[in-house]
Structures are given as C-alpha cells and as structure tokens.
C-alpha cells in the first residue's frame, strides 16, 4: 500500500526552549515536517517588535526572507513602517548592489519606485504613479525616458506634447537673431527622402516606407563648412555614444555555508502500522560567530535559557498551566554571520569601440528646433 506521512510537533518544553523561534521546517521523507532541531537556516522567527524573518534574514521589516543564491544574496522585504519613512514597501536587495523597492509614498495616495530606500533613509524616488492615474518622474527635468541604445519604437498621444517655453527661464543671445554663419548653415541643410535599413531588411526595398528628413552627420558637416566652430552647441544636433551590455565580475560578499547532517523523523503508515522513521539528511547551514553582547559601559548583558539534562532535553517543572522549562541566566549572544569574499556577476554598460579604436556614436537631431532654426535664418535673417 502507498506510504503516507504525518507531522511530528515539538513538545511544549521544546517550544518554550526555542525562545522567539516559532517554527522550524524541512522537507523530507515524503512530506513537510516540523523540524524539532530548529535549524537556523530554516526556522521562522518573530522578534520582540513583532517582525518575522525566515532563515538568516535580518528582522528589519515586518516580514523578511533571505534565500541563498550562488554568488549572490537576495533579500525581499514586505514592510509597513511605523516611523519615517512611513509607508508600505517591497524591496529587493542583491549582494553588492543598491536595494530597489516599490512602495507607498509616505502620507500620499501614490506608489513609487525607489533606490536606496530603507527604514532609516527615504532614498531616491525615481518614478511615481499617482491615484488619479498620472505617471511622472520623481524629480523635475532630471530623468530620461529610454536611452540612445535602448530606444522606444513608437509613441502615441491624443494631443501634442507640452514643452516648457517660459521666458523667465531663458536668456537671449545678443538680440536673438541668427549670425551670418548660421544663415549660411541653414541654407545648406537639405531634407532628403530615405528608407530605414531595418525596415528594408524586414519588408524589402519595395515595401519599406519612405521618410523625409536630414542626416545628422551631413547637418554637422554643413555647419563646419559654414564656419560654425562647434555645431553641437546648437541644441537641434547631438550624438550619443553607442553602448552595449557586458557581464563582468565584481567583488562581493556572502555568508559562508557548511553542510550539516540532521536526522529527519516522520511517521509513515505501513501495512496499517504507524512507523516512526529516522532518516539522515544533509542540509546547508549558514555559519555564524557567537559574540557576547555588552552594554554601552562594556558590561555583559544577561538573558535566560532553558536548562538541559544529560541527554540535551530541556528540564521541566510543574507549572500552573502545565510543564514549564527550568531557566538559567547566561550571557546574551549575538550570532554574527561569517562572510566570505566572492566575485559576483554584474551587468555594465560599456561604449562600443570601432575598428579604428574610436568610440562609435548614434547621431540625432531635434526636428522641432531644427525647423525653427531654418525658419529663423530664412525669415529673420533676410529681414535683418
């Protein structure tokens, strides 16, 4: 007949002896069972402030879980802070990289993405969703949407974008009219019809759409030929370094792990009999150094722990509500994680270098400014 299993619960004395450890658990022997050994790599802990942690995670927030990952340490927190910064958050921390989190904006009905936010520091707000549906950056005129090497294919709007053009934020150059070299430059800029190479590759030359515009490199050269010292000083022309993503190894740290053999105990039904089965299991256990805790004056801090008999079982005595553990005063011990140096994979953005050893660029124009430049040189320039 098929094997079945049940759980074995810890005794009252063992539960009291566990202190703030609420439940240890492992998988093995055909089902999830209570781990009476309370392996610190697995146990669920509740501290005096009502915060929960699984395994070796620090109890910084309401709920904390630390999961080992080769070469990396990943921490996920589900928080509801009582103090500043106030607001619920979910944060993700990777070994050697600043933590990111999605959280409620303190005191506001809005959700935001933060970097470097924790219980003691508000961090930097990057993007925010407001209750009315507005999506906006965390700062004013400080962030970009997409990048030169990671562009957005298309954008759709119900009305034209609004661009700030406030006179109080501008200063005229001279009398605000174009110079002779700029007029010559504008007259040399010629729009042409073209097809995009990626469209030709995808659709064929006969099906690829035709577009009207300029080539930024030609606009630049026309400025040089017209006597413009630095065409890039004009905001309608620019270029950005072409980049690629490269995986590199950077220094990092993680907690040491050792293998420990535990005895899993569970009950199986065999031919109508409940059989207690013991099976050795090898599991990873994080390493710690036990450090005595002292107060600010250097005196040892004492705490209570249950007394054990020769077999290692807690000594109990009768109590008004049942057996209670016999306690004794011992120094309070802080379990300091033992860390080791490792190399961690990290993606970095690096410039693309051409065959000539020089950086490659993606050139661009701002057509709204370019059109106004050509218009100003054709109308205001001739009127002058």
What is the topological layout?
Blueprint: E1 5-6, H1 12-17, E2 21-23, E3 25-28, E4 31-34, E5 44-46, E6 52-54, E7 63-69, E8 72-81, E9 87-94, E10 97-104, E11 110-115, E12 124-130, E13 135-137, H2 180-188, E14 192-195, H3 197-203, E15 210-213, H4 216-225, E16 237-241, E17 243-255, E18 257-270, E19 273-286, E20 288-292, E21 302-306, E22 316-317, E23 324-325, E24 327-331, E25 333-337, E26 339-351, E27 361-365, H5 367-383
Explained architecture:
It is built from five helices and 27 strands. Helix 2 (180-188) packs antiparallel against helix 4 and helix 2 (180-188) packs across helix 5. Among the domains are: 5-137, no CATH class; 178-242 and 352-383, Arc Repressor Mutant, subunit A, CATH 1.10.10. With 384 residues, it is mainly beta.
């Amino acid at each position: 007949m098929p094997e079945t299993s049940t759980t074995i619960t810890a005794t009252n004395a063992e539960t009291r002896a566990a202190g703030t450890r609420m439940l240890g658990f492992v998988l093995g022997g055909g089902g999830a069972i209570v781990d009476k050994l309370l392996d610190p790599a697995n146990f669920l802990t509740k501290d005096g402030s009502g915060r929960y942690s699984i395994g070796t995670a620090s109890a910084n927030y309401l709920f904390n879980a630390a999961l080992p990952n080769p070469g990396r340490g990943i921490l996920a927190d589900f928080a509801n802070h009582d103090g500043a910064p106030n607001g619920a958050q979910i944060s993700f921390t990777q070994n050697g990289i600043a933590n990111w989190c999605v959280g409620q904006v303190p005191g506001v009905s809005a959700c935001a993405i933060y970097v470097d936010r924790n219980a003691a520091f508000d961090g930097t707000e990057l993007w925010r969703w407001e209750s009315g549906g507005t999506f906006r950056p965390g700062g004013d005129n400080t962030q970009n949407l997409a990048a030169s090497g990671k562009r957005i294919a298309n954008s759709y709007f119900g009305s034209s974008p609004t661009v700030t053009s406030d006179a109080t934020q501008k200063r005229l150059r001279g009398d605000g009219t174009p110079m002779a070299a700029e007029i010559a430059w504008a007259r040399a800029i010629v729009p042409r019809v073209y097809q995009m190479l990626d469209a030709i590759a995808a659709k064929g030359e006969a099906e690829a759409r035709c577009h009207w515009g300029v080539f930024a490199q030609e606009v630049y050269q026309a400025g040089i030929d017209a006597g413009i010292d630095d065409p890039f000083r004009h905001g309608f022309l620019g270029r950005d370094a072409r980049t690629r993503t490269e995986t590199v190894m950077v220094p990092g740290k993680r907690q040491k792990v050792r293998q420990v053999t535990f005895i899993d105990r569970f009950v199986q039904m065999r031919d109508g009999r409940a059989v207690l089965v013991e099976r050795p299991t090898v599991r990873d256990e994080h390493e710690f150094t036990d450090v005595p805790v002292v107060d600010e004056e250097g005196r040892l801090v004492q705490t209570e722990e249950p007394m054990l008999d020769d077999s290692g079982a807690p000594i109990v005595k009768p109590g008004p509500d049942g057996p209670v553990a016999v306690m004794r005063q011992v120094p309070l011990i802080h379990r300091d994680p033992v860390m080791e140096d490792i190399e961690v994979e990290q993606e970095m953005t690096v410039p693309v270098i051409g065959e000539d050893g020089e950086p490659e660029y993606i050139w661009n124009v701002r057509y709204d400014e370019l059109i106004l430049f050509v218009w100003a040189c054709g109308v205001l320039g001739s009127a002058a």
